[in-house]
Design a protein that fits this description.
276 residues; alpha/beta; five-stranded mixed β-sheet; 13 helices; globular
């Protein structure tokens, strides 16, 4: 078990802060018009305390609870559990056509879930002509809830604070992908992740970088939250880097591993086996 991420150790270490956090949130609920808000459990709250303080966490948790209620997120969470497969989410076929991604692909050696995103093949113009910003946002909220619930389930099973590992393949990136409307939409989506899905992911490995992409990144990062930027690691040789974190069969074949090009239905069933 990973001592650094061991949930029991973390809950003990943050016990005083958790008491302060729950007391502060309840006081804000009692003094507001949102008396029907329900506080999530300690593992969820722990993500807001991680690398933060109770004072900051109180505001963030309270705002997230209101946002979840006002945005109908619990209904989305219910749908995600019933669908079980991200390929059944609203607008998936169109999203995957223009923003190819396996929301869940495999696990790391330390049993962290992994997503593979092929941003080098993104077609911003096609996506923005096929879907509205609201439809793109809807799909991404389904995706975030899927990731949040996987994190929650595997945290309880493994005893370690689970966070996603993202492989972002930018091979083939070109300047035509820099479109303000597209970047603006995904900038807003990234902000929602930062505000309301704390510690959703641990690391983003950006592979197959090129001189063109490095120049593009200077533009792209201005639309991304700072914490997302800080989690990114850029590498040109994907296989050597990924083998530090994955068994070879858990690395896609297009990145030099022996895994399939896309996730198998059996793997998705493993990830969602708790959802009955």
């Amino acid at each position: 078990m990973d001592n650094e991420n061991n949930v029991i150790s973390l809950l003990e270490s943050y016990s005083n802060e958790l008491i302060q956090l729950k007391t502060g949130i309840q006081e804000k609920i009692n003094s507001s018009s949102h008396r029907d808000l329900v506080i999530f459990d300690d593992i969820w709250l722990l993500r807001y305390l991680y690398n933060s303080t109770p004072q900051k966490a109180i505001e963030r948790v309270f705002n997230t609870m209101i946002w979840r209620k006002d945005s109908g997120i619990e209904a989305i969470a219910k749908n995600v559990r019933e669908l079980k497969d991200f390929r059944k989410f609203p607008h998936f076929e169109i999203m995957n056509k223009y923003v190819p991604c396996d929301v869940f692909y495999s696990f790391t050696k330390s049993n962290m879930p992994c997503a593979v995103e092929r941003w080098g093949q993104v077609n911003p113009k096609g996506l923005m002509s096929a879907l509205t910003p609201e439809q793109i946002m809807e799909y991404c909220l389904y995706e975030f809830e899927f990731m949040r619930m996987i994190n929650d389930d595997f945290t309880r099973e493994t005893g370690n604070l689970t966070r996603w590992f993202i492989i972002m393949d930018v091979g083939g990136s070109s300047w035509h992908q820099i479109q303000k409307g597209f970047l603006s939409v995904f900038g807003k989506i990234g902000k929602i992740m930062e505000l309301h899905y704390r510690e959703l992911m641990s690391k983003v490995i950006v592979v197959n970088t090129s001189d063109v992409f490095i120049l593009m990144w200077k533009v792209v990062k201005t639309f991304l939250p700072k914490k997302t930027q800080e989690k990114a690691e850029f590498v040109r040789d994907p296989l050597a880097t990924l083998q530090k974190y994955f068994e070879n069969e858990s690395i896609p074949n297009f990145l030099g591993g022996s895994g399939p090009a896309s996730v198998s239905p059996e793997t998705i069933k493993i990830a969602t086996r708790f959802w009955v």
